[in-house]
């Protein structure tokens, strides 16, 4: 096998800078993230199993204790190669598999203590009548999303493609569906002009070795062999893949992904990945330091701009990632405020949908996504292709982005908004100040900052976008 190595602009230096950022992260931010995580965990605790909760909490470790992950020279992408991803801002996550049938979330097998044989029976029933990946892609486009990430295999072990490496032939080609969903999905994304992402979980609950990797080393080795085989299949058989989104690079639901690196050997695994897909953007959950960092869950995003690529992933239906009988659909205001809070701090947002057992994204979800799309039709120039700042966000009040000679202010609708918005000192000369619909707003600028006259009647229900045009 030829291993391709990549010319990179001193990534070690970039790593060090990123690490430094974390060290300097104000104490206040750490406390805020901690408290908001606790609140969000409490909400979820009502529906999630203990280990499922731990999984969510663990995945935010980068935001709590500093970026973790093993590094390999040349394995991470250069900032230039990350640019499209940072420009994209908004993507669709899709959790779909056998767990759509019981409709109690993607952790059903583990939470309900189902044996692999019992769970495997679901594969006989999995014959989605209306699966149409083009339809999914059209929904993502209508929502203003630029990329998709589909779960190819979750922790239950069921592969959604023609997977010769699948242990016990547990895949959608060799069971009742007789369909390669990944093939249809990847083709549909490309046809729609969306970037293609694949989620893959190396861990697999069917293997006792997962729960006891040292005591049952032989069985654990089989699981690892499956992971290497399947990752290679996904990387070589479906054309260009833009994002590889690992999840569950840990062992026995304990520790962090990095702690399990002795077992999974993520540098070796991702060298294989890079061999097939030199420019793929890789997340941090294989135990390797990722091309971006992940923040999971629906807690409000607060604090300053983060100076490294990161992504917020969360659920449109708060009940679970996989299709669920219980529905806690996010409000339009909740989605829009989350989006600007993320983008104004330098992140992307990956919003999850869980299609039903027939492959259909629930109609109420589609309608909500269309509402997001119409907001983006009008406000998209303040989102896509921008970078965060120049103004540091003020929690629950406003944040900003910029592109060329334009600065965009996203004002969060709240009763904190009075008749005037004050922005800090700014070294560029402002020529005009308008609402995104073109309506002029009175403003003044001096050494102390900018004052914008904004009346209640100017405010939009969730987020009001103000455009400052600079002379330089
Ligand atoms: C968590 C969960 C998993 C879900 C993922 C999405 O790690 O274990 O069910 O797929 O988050 O980010």
Secondary structure elements and pairings:
Elements: H1 11-24, H2 27-45, H3 50-58, H4 61-65, H5 79-88, E1 90-94, H6 108-111, H7 116-120, H8 122-125, H9 133-142, E2 147-153, H10 181-192, E3 195-200, H11 208-211, H12 217-236, E4 243-246, H13 261-264, H14 266-276, E5 281-282, E6 293-296, E7 310-315, H15 332-343, E8 347-353, H16 363-379, E9 387-388, E10 398-403, E11 406-412, E12 420-423, E13 430-435, E14 443-446, E15 449-453, E16 463-470
Parallel strand pairs: 1-2, 1-8, 2-3, 3-4, 4-5, 6-7, 7-8
Antiparallel strand pairs: 9-10, 10-11, 11-16, 12-15, 13-16, 14-15
Helix pairs in contact: 9-10, 9-16, 12-14
Bound molecules: alpha-D-glucopyranose.
CATH superfamily of the largest domain: Glycosidases
Gyration radius from CA atoms, angstroms: 22 Å
Which ligands accompany this protein?
Answer: alpha-D-glucopyranose
Strand order of the largest sheet: 5-4-3-2-1-8-7-6
Q: Give the percentage of residues in beta strands.
A: 15-25%
The count of helical stretches stands at: 16
Shape: globular
Helix content: 25-40%
């Amino acid at each position: 096998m030829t291993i391709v190595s990549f010319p990179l602009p001193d990534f070690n230096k970039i790593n060090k800078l990123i690490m430094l950022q974390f060290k300097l992260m104000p104490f206040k931010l750490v406390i805020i993230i901690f408290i908001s995580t606790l609140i969000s965990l409490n909400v979820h605790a009502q529906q999630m199993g203990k280990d499922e909760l731990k999984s969510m909490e663990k995945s935010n470790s980068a935001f709590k204790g500093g970026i973790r992950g093993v590094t390999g020279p040349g394995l991470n992408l250069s900032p230039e190669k990350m640019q499209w991803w940072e420009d994209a801002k908004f993507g669709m996550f899709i959790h779909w598999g056998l767990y759509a049938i019981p409709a109690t979330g993607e952790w059903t097998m583990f939470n309900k203590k189902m044996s692999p044989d019992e769970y495997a029976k679901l594969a006989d029933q999995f014959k989605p009548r209306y699966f149409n990946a083009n339809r999914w892609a059209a929904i993502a486009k209508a929502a203003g999303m630029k990329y998709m990430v589909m779960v190819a295999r979750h922790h239950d072990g069921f592969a959604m493609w023609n997977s010769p490496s699948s242990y016990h032939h547990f895949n959608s080609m060799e069971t009742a569906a007789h369909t390669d969903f990944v093939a249809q999905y990847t083709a549909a994304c490309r046809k729609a002009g969306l970037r293609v992402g694949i989620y893959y979980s190396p861990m697999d609950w069917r293997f006792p070795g997962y729960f006891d990797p040292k005591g049952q080393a032989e069985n654990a080795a089989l699981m690892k062999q499956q992971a290497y085989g399947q990752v290679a299949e996904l990387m070589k058989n479906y054309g260009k893949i833009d994002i590889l989104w690992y999840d569950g690079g840990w062992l026995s639901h304990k520790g962090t992904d990095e702690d399990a690196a002795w077992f999974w050997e993520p540098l070796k695994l991702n060298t294989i990945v890079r061999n097939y897909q030199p420019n793929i953007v890789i997340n941090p959950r294989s135990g390797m330091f990722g091309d971006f960092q992940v923040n999971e869950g629906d807690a409000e995003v607060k604090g300053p701009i983060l100076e490294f690529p990161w992504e917020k992933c969360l659920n449109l239906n708060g009940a679970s990632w996989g299709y669920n009988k219980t529905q806690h659909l996010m409000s339009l205001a909740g989605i829009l405020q989350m989006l600007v809070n993320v983008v104004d701090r330098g992140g992307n947002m990956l919003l999850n949908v869980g299609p039903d057992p027939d492959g259909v994204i629930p109609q109420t979800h589609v309608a909500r996504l269309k509402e997001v799309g119409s907001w983006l039709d009008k406000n998209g120039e303040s989102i896509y292709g921008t970078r965060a700042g120049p103004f540091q966000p003020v929690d629950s009040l406003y944040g900003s982005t910029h592109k060329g000679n334009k600065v965009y202010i996203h004002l969060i609708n709240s009763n904190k908004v009075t008749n005037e918005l004050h922005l800090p000192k700014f070294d560029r000369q402002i020529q005009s100040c308008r609402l995104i619909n073109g309506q002029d707003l009175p403003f003044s600028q001096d050494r102390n900052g900018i004052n914008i006259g904004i009346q209640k009647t100017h405010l939009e229900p969730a987020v009001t976008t103000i455009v400052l045009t600079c002379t330089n």
